[in-house]
Amino acid sequence: MSNTDYTKTKQGIQAAFGGDSWVTTMRDNGLARFDKKGFPTVKDEEWRYTNLKMIKEGNFIPGAATNNADLSLYNQVVTGKGVEVVFIDGHFSEKDSSLNGVVSGVDLMTLASALKTKGNEIQSLLEHFNEDTENPFTGLNDAMLSSGTCLFVSDKVQSNEVINIVFITTEKAENAMTMPRNFVVVGQSAKAVICETHVHRGTRQCYFKNTQCDIVIGENSHVEYYKAQLESFGAYHISNTRIHMAASSHLESFTLDLGAKLTRNTLHISLNGENIHAGLDGLYALAEDQHVDNHSAVDHRFPHCVSDQLYKGLLDGKSRGVFNGKIFVRQAAQKTDAYQLNRNVILSDNASVDTKPQLEINADDVRCTHGATIGQMSPSEVFYLQSRGIDKETAVDMLAHGFADDALDRIVNDGVRTIFNAYLHEYFFDAKERRTV
Amino acid sequence: MLEIKNLHAKVVDGVEILKGISLDIKPGEVHAIMGPNGSGKSTLSKVVAGHPDYEVTDGSVELEINFKKVDILEMEPEERALNGVFMAFQYPVEIPGVNNAMFLRSCFNEICKHQGVEEMDPFDFDVLIREKMKMLSIDEKFIERAVNVDFSGGEKKRNEILQMAVLNPKIAFLDETDSGLDIDSLKIVAEGVNALRNEENAIVLITHYQRLLDYIKPDHVHVLSGGKITKSGDSELALQVEEKGYDWVA
Fold first, then answer.
1. What is the rounded CA–CA span in Å between residue A398 and residue B151?
2. CA-CA distance, B227 to B17, in Å (whole number)?
């Protein structure tokens, strides 16, 4: 039984990257929190359906920098057009990136730079999440703080173009562990569109990704946050996102999970003001023995906010989906509108889903709905298509496409919707060798 | 063309609804089936179409295919459709994400394939579907919409007749197509159905009210009650039922 020595790895990073004392302290505290809690087991309510044994017992080493990596497999993701921040095996690749297309008032830089020049801004961001440090993987990510991006959008700046942050793991990075960290601060009355992609192509190699994204959205601002998980089918992907929203701000968030052997996404959104609108949507399409666990929590702390969540899943093979959506409505949060829906379609005999909505409502004048469905494709819908001459298999496929399209329609940005649809076809619908149906 | 012989059917794991229905439908004919709620009218059309909620316990449904009588109860629903059986649903199903035009073209081409006829390309099909939509006063915007999604009740019913117009079935069961329609929509639907009548096909109108039959004149009228046909006649029968009620027939 081997275990990765996270303390040694942290020390290596500390030695290689250094940093001001606040950075060193952050790493030390992070490791301490991780050590104290350790890897969650299935006895931990938050991790009941997701067994992390394989990660705990894995033997991972930090991803090494590669010069002149062959990115020919990644043309779809690294296009050379627009704004792209590219990381290869955990290391920023200047030659493959293009940070220049940003509009004036947008500051986009690597974490390494920001740790040196934006220390105050980052510490200020972190203060927004002081109450949200329970997750041991956040501690572990803190401990390894070294690589990632920082995005600062100034007040009133409208950044409409998609800022692509791409994390590529190459075939040279078997058993690598990478822990990217992204910080986003959007000022007041501003706009930003972010697309984070995690991808590996070509093998089914094992590696461990522990990624964290912290976003602070200022008053009256608008943020679109998209994430595509296209990891190797043998990899582990743990992702944590914390979002702090100020009054009258607007968030549209969409998570697409198609890859990895085991995925756990934890998304926390805190609504800290009135008239906030938060849309959280997601789609997972799984086959073989994949496992995707989506845990989310929306915290309504003030009146008149709206949260709207739709997560849809297509499950084939022996795949497993887990959904736990928490909605907290504090006593002061009157006139809250909170909607949550998790819909799952099981396409094979051995796929399964565990879904649990969790509502804690302490205000008395609210509107909260939640629903979860798990089932095969609706027989009456299948019959309707059959009655028009379409055979059962094709009918189920057509309906599965429609089911997924309905989720993708939630993506506001046309370009992102198109590419996410392409990924969905590549990884799921057209990958006949992975499918039982 | 279609001969239903002593058909018994029940809800799967439930009660018997059809208790021995016999019906002989010849090419060129329009039959109307009327009856009180719960009589089994909708069940009849669903059983003929092959709905999975129902199980046939006795009897046969023979369709004439190339001069041979074939019991279609052995066939999968799609096979029945490919052989010319069509049902306009009472409650058409919404299919999010499946584009109306693309869906119809797929169905149309499946039938072409089955008949050994060349499939139609999207361009030609577009012309065909617009022609039919115009005939049924269906707004062109519905071409791009998902099947029945956000359609009003009347629009859904008209979309069913559009499908019928495009797929050109041999025998069509129209299951309470008139329910929920205002008089203008009713007239349009009736005109559309009448335009599709010819000497080679047949239509079965399942209806609760006589009103539709003012516009689509049936050759035969049957009253269905308690899972059986209790009376048959011509279009006069429909008027009598309207005047005297279903109890009179019983």
1. 20
2. 5
Cβ contacts of A335 within 8 Å, gap of 6 or more: A303, A304, A365, A366
pTM across the whole model:
0.87
Task: From A299, A146, A292, select the one nearest A212 (Cα to Cα).
Answer: A146
- Span B6-19, mean pLDDT? 94
**Residues in chain B closer than 8 A to A314 (CB atoms):** none
Taking contacts as CB-CB distances below 8 angstroms, the residues of chain B near A401 are 97-98
Q: Is B84 on the interface with A (CB under 8 A)?
A: no
∠A37-A38-A41 over CA atoms, to 5°? 100
Query: Closest partner residue to B97 among A384, A390, A403, by Cβ?
Result: A403
Q: Strands across the sheet with B228-233, in order?
A: B85-88, B171-175, B202-207, B30-34, B220-225, B228-233
Contacts of A384 in chain B (CB under 8 A): 89, 92-93, 95
Query: What's the CATH number for B2-249?
Result: 3.40.50.300
pLDDT of residue A423: 97
Determine the distance in angstroms separating the CA of A44 from the nearest CA of chain B, rounded to an integer. 38
Phi, psi dihedral angles at A11 (to 5 degrees)? -65, -40
Give CA B145 to chain center in angstroms. 23
Chain A partners within 8 Å of B78 (Cβ): 386-392, 395
Tell me whether residues A388 and B76 touch, CB distance under 8 A. Answer: no
Distance (Å, whole) CA B6 – CA A422? 53
Structure confidence by residue, pLDDT tens digits, A305-346: 999 999 999 999 999 999 999 999 999 999 999 999 999 999
Yes or no, beta carbons of A387 and B49 under 8 Å apart:
yes
Report CA dihedral (A254, A260, A261, A264) to the nearest 10 degrees: -40
The H-assigned helical ranges of A4-135 are 6-17, 21-37, 53-56, 111-117, 119-127
Question: Which of the listed ranges A199-208, B183-192, B232-241 does the model predict with the highest average pLDDT?
Answer: A199-208
Burial label, B93 (beta-carbon count in 10 A; 0-12, 13-18, 19+): middle
- Between chain A and chain B, the number of residue pairs with CB atoms below 8 A apart is 72
